[in-house]
Write a structure and sequence with these properties.
Bound molecules: adenosine-5'-triphosphate, magnesium ion
Order of helices and strands of chain A: HHHHHHHHHHHHH
CATH topology of the largest domain in chain C: Rossmann fold
Radius of gyration of chain A: 25 Å
Helix content of chain C: 10-25%
Largest sheet of chain C: 6 strands, mixed
CATH class of the largest domain in chain C: Alpha Beta
Helix content of chain A: 55-70%
Shape of chain A: flat
Number of helices of chain C: 8
Radius of gyration of chain C: 24 Å
Distance between the termini of chain A: 39 Å
CATH class of the largest domain in chain A: Mainly Alpha
CATH superfamily of the largest domain in chain C: P-loop containing nucleotide triphosphate hydrolases
Oligomer: heterotrimer
Number of strands of chain C: 21
Number of helices of chain A: 13
CATH architecture of the largest domain in chain A: Orthogonal Bundle
Shape of chain C: elongated
Number of strands of chain A: 0
Number of domains of chain C: 2
Chains: A mainly alpha (297), B mainly alpha (301), C alpha+beta (360)
Strand order of the largest sheet of chain C: 6-7-8-3-9-10
Strand content of chain A: under 5%
CATH architecture of the largest domain in chain C: 3-Layer(aba) Sandwich
Distance between the termini of chain C: 30 Å
Chain lengths: 297, 301, 360
């Protein structure tokens, strides 16, 4: 019998080897990359990153740039509308589908398929649908309503709402699926109890079912919000940020600064702002969800 | 047994009469059908547009079916459409995407499944800390890590190549896939793992001979998730590859949004469908598994 | 006695599957009826039909002499208690009790009065401000009963209300439900597959099988005169011993043994029908020791196995080739291999036709 204890490091060694990619990714890419970007956002890096400290200059310049302000404003409009509409539509659809309807699978398939498509495809389809010369506007005018105007992608004031339509088309199926899973997870006896109590269906949804679905709502909220902050491909494909700079968004600002304007410092500062936005949502959620009670893993 | 069959029944009996066209049903199905039409419309418009000739497009409306069906736009979109200087159509992008997607999917799933297995059955000290970082990493906007990765890839000489992009997809697929596999392996009965250990199997033998054969459904879900995700990617493609290696989504965008020349909407729509074809087929074929994948992926992502 | 609930020719099917078939049942005012049967026999389905939670496929349901076949659950004058409690988790206990009443636009003082009454009866006054998550299983079930109670209805429906609780709590709440019934004197229909619950609570028990009622009767009848072999086997623990043989000239013959049937009360026929039959005798009706001398039938057996349970000792042996169990006092000292003399009175036994399995 050997009496030497095996070295701690080599215990479970295969498992540690298997986890190397995770450790490298977590430490180098996620933690390392994030710190790197935050640190370099305080430098005046241009074409190449360099450690020349300029304090908060990049941020001051960022918040003085019209394109960034418009980006933020667009993100706020798009995000708020998207959030509200996608939840309302997704929940109503889920509730309707939950009524033991016929052809449930068909309807669900039709509503969810846009989610399988890339944002580029989504953006291009809706660019075509909303084309005033050929698309919806022309069709409606063809029906006899000559003055009908619907060309969101061509008027700077409302262009972001054109993007919103595409975004909702693509994303509401996901919310519907999550909500439906939530509804199906509810104890059917609760429905029965509310019927015995004589509660009308709509009241049961508002006062009983929706409160019971709080966890589903919270997770969906986090998913939708992080998705909104990342929005980039859709804009590039559908409007390219135009007309003018009316549909610019932060993610595009970052890309443009880093890879086209050779202004890395601005890109770093802008992406750090995006990080802060996400952190403001994810951290409170994580504390609520995992911090308070340790009974879940 | 107990049979007190009495006088014939009077008054309400049997199922409550329901009109097939009750207000409720009209509202329910009316709403659903309207909404389903709204969702289906773009796909339909894409198809009919791609089958029309340009003169017909200029005259007709987007919803009308093609009077004269032509496949010319599809041919052009596939092999002739121009992006800037080159005119090879989408085919190059398609093959690039294939070359990116296949290795990325395989690599990411192997790494993540082994990792998820290590996290569920062979926990070592500190494993959970790294895993937590990994999961939080999934929420960090990609833009934050964009440039550091450019530097890392440049260091190892992979920047601009397909290999580099494969690596990036593997890294960013890791959080969700690891979570998926870890949760799945945790849900398998632990006795199985213990029995295999008693039988003398080690880490890799148990993975290959016990875990993998039992996990086909979750591997399928992972493949669906990854193929669609990687095929649909645009940002990483544009950042980490050079124009020769652009994936299909990037080529598509370049073809449609290139500013030169007359816009050929039918070719554009054919190109759009072609790009959407791979994820769409996966979606329509896999049905419930796809839903399970996104529900699993999304709920805890 | 006036009927509280009447079920006439009830049919229910899910698609092509017939779950309830031509079911008739009359439940008197203030009666405690227990629906008992194995899993999947349609107990919950029947209860849901009475509640109006399922649309029947045929027949009628009357509650308090009103045809409610098409009425909404809330208009039927019923209250229901579910196995999973089905409390509204985001509302306090008080909210749970008052939700339905508020919705029915009852005046506030009336609501308060009913809640006060219900919480007094169920002793849940200290819990009123809590949410269900902060209650124990037993407390939750009381609240669920309270929710039926405040509805101030004549008919209570219970679907396995105690089966999520541990054994001790179940026994406590069982007593409490019984007390509640004595106090309120309203009609209760109670689904369970626990026979102890059924025997202790019921005025009458309906034994269900395959969507039909096999036997309807008082616990005594069900226990003493089971209508067929299924019921005989289903009721009682340990279950009844069955001996197969022939009836000839007023005796039951099994190989060399013959059991005189003098004291046995035959059913419809009034007298012995000759032919193949099964005799059932409950382990607790078999006597040993000195008592044997007074029984009409006696037999010597060898003890094969003993199962002490504390209060009783179960002895396994063989009678004419059939496995046979005897329940003895927990104090009795027997050992495996020992010879034992058993006896029982045919008057306490049951006879079933070998073919139809119906009671003779
Ligand atoms: N919605 C449904 N669709 C099809 N069949 C059903 C449905 N609900 C119940 N059944 C079937 O009806 C039969 C009776 O079910 P029910 O729930 O009434 O049984 P039960 O006696 O309450 O059983 P348990 O003791 O397990 O609760 C079962 O065979 C069940 O499979
Ligand atoms: Mg049941």
């Amino acid at each position: 019998m050997s009496s030497t204890r095996p070295n701690q490091l080599f215990r479970n060694i295969s498992s540690k080897i298997a986890a190397i990619p995770m450790i490298v990714t977590a430490l180098f890419v996620f933690v390392g990359g994030t710190i790197w970007t935050v640190v370099y956002s305080f430098t005046n890096s241009g074409l190449l990153p360099r450690l020349q400290w300029v304090g908060l200059d990049q941020y001051e310049r960022l918040w003085a740039t019209r394109k960034w302000l418009i980006s933020i404003e667009n993100l706020a409009i798009y995000g708020l509308c998207m959030l509200v509409l996608v939840f309302v539509i997704g929940f109503i659809l889920a509730a309707l589908i939950d009524q033991k309807i016929r052809f449930e699978d068909t309807i669900r398939t039709v509503i969810l398929y846009p989610y399988a498509l890339s944002f580029v495809v989504t953006g291009l389809v809706w660019q075509w649908m909303l084309n005033p010369e050929f698309g919806v506007q022309k069709v409606v005018r063809g029906w006899g309503w000559e003055s009908f105007t619907f060309d969101p992608l061509y008027s700077a004031d409302i262009a972001i709402y054109g993007v919103l339509i595409a975004g909702i088309w693509q994303g509401s199926g996901l919310v519907m699926v999550l909500m439906l899973a939530g509804l199906r997870g509810i104890d059917q006896d609760v429905w029965k109890a509310s019927r015995v109590d004589g509660i009308p269906t709509w009241k049961a949804y508002i006062f009983v079912i929706i409160p019971m679905m709080r966890p589903v709502f919270v997770t969906t909220l986090v998913i939708v919000v992080t998705g909104i902050v990342k929005i980039y491909d859709l804009i590039v494909a559908q409007t390219g940020g135009g007309p003018g700079i009316s549909t610019e968004v932060p993610a595009k600002y970052v890309y443009d600064m880093m890879f086209q304007a050779n202004n890395l410092g601005q890109g770093f500062a802008a992406s750090t702002m995006m990080l802060v936005t996400v952190a403001l949502i994810v951290i409170p959620w994580a504390i609520l969800e995992f911090g308070g009670s340790k009974h879940r893993d | 047994m107990i049979d007190t069959t009495s006088a014939p029944l009077t008054g309400p009996q049997g199922p409550k009469p329901r009109k097939p066209f009750s207000r409720r049903n009209i509202f329910l199905y009316g709403t659903l059908i309207t909404i389903a039409l709204f969702y289906a419309l773009p796909l339909y418009v894409m198809f009919v547009t791609s089958l029309k000739g340009m003169p017909e497009i200029r005259l007709g409306n987007v919803f009308s079916p093609p009077l004269e069906v032509t496949f010319q736009p599809w041919v052009k979109a596939w092999s002739e459409a121009c992006t800037g200087l080159t005119c090879n159509g989408l085919s190059t992008g398609f093959w690039n995407s294939v070359q990116i997607t296949i290795p990325s999917v395989i690599l990411s799933i192997i790494i993540a499944s082994v990792n998820g297995y290590a996290l569920s059955n062979w926990k070592f000290k500190g494993a959970d800390a790294f895993f937590t970082i990994l999961i939080f990493g999934a929420f960090i906007p990609y833009q934050v890590m964009l440039y550091p990765i450019v530097i890392m890839l440049r260091e190892v000489g992979l920047y601009g190549s397909l290999g580099g992009l494969v690596l990036v997809h593997t890294v960013f697929g890791m959080p969700i896939l690891t979570l998926l596999f870890r949760n799945y392996f945790t849900s398998l009965p632990e006795e199985l793992f213990k029995a295999a250990r008693v039988d003398g199997a080690g880490f890799w033998a148990i993975y290959a001979k016990v875990m993998v054969p039992m996990s086909l459904p979750i591997f399928t879900v992972a493949v669906i998730l990854q193929v669609t995700g990687i095929w649909n990617d645009f940002l990483f493609g544009v950042v980490y590859t050079s124009p020769d290696n652009y994936p299909m989504t990037v080529s598509l965008n370049n073809i449609v949004n290139s500013t030169q020349g007359v816009k050929e909407y039918n070719v554009n729509m054919a190109a759009t469908i072609l790009t959407g074809l791979v994820p769409l087929s996966i979606y329509f074929v896999s049905g419930r598994l796809f839903v399970r994948g996104i529900a699993a992926g999304a709920v805890k992502g | 006695m006036q009927n509280s609930v009447e079920i006439k020719n009830l049919d229910l099917q899910f698609g092509a599957v017939k779950v309830l078939q031509n079911l008739n049942l009359e439940i008197g005012k203030g009666e405690f009826l227990v629906l008992l049967g194995s899993s999947g026999c349609g107990k919950s389905t029947l209860l849901n039909c009475i509640a109006g939670l399922l649309d029947v496929s045929g027949g009628q349901i009357h509650i308090n002499d009103r045809n409610v076949t098409w009425a909404e659950p809330s208009d039927r004058g019923i209250g229901m208690v579910f196995q999973s409690y089905a409390l509204y988790p985001q509302m306090t206990v008080e909210g749970n009790l008052s939700f339905g009443l508020k919705n029915a636009k009852l005046p506030k003082p009336e609501i308060a009065k009913r809640i006060k009454h219900a919480s007094e009866v169920l002793q849940i006054e200290p819990l009123l401000k809590r949410k269900p998550a902060a209650l124990s299983g037993g407390q939750r079930q009381r609240v669920a009963i309270g929710r039926a109670l405040v509805r101030d209805v004549d008919v209570f429906l219970f679907d396995e209300p105690l089966s999520n609780l541990d054994a001790k709590l179940r026994a406590d709440l069982r007593v409490e439900i019984k007390r509640l019934h004595h106090k309120l004197q309203n009609t209760m229909i109670y689904v369970t597959h626990d026979q102890i619950e059924a025997m202790t609570l019921a005025d009458r028990i309906a034994i269900m099988r395959g969507g039909q009622i096999m036997q309807l009767g008082s616990p005594d009848e069900i226990y003493g005169q089971p209508i067929n072999k299924y019921v005989a086997d289903f009721i009682g623990s340990p279950s009844m011993n069955f001996l197969e043989g022939n009836i000839k000239n007023g005796t039951f013959e099994m190989g060399e043994l013959s059991i005189p049937l003098d004291g046995y009360e035959f059913g419809d026929t009034g007298a012995a029908t000759e032919g193949a039959a099964t005799m059932g005798i409950r382990p607790e009706h078999v006597v040993t020791g000195e008592l044997v001398e007074s029984t009409p039938f006696q037999v010597d057996v060898e003890v094969n196995l003993i199962e002490p349970t504390g209060s009783d000792t179960l002895v396994d042996c063989e009678v004419a080739g059939h496995h046979f169990r005897v329940r003895m006092d927990g104090q009795s000292r027997v050992s495996v291999g020992e010879k034992l003399r058993l006896g029982f009175a045919p008057a306490r036994a049951s006879l079933f036709d070998a073919k139809t399995e119906l009671r003779l």
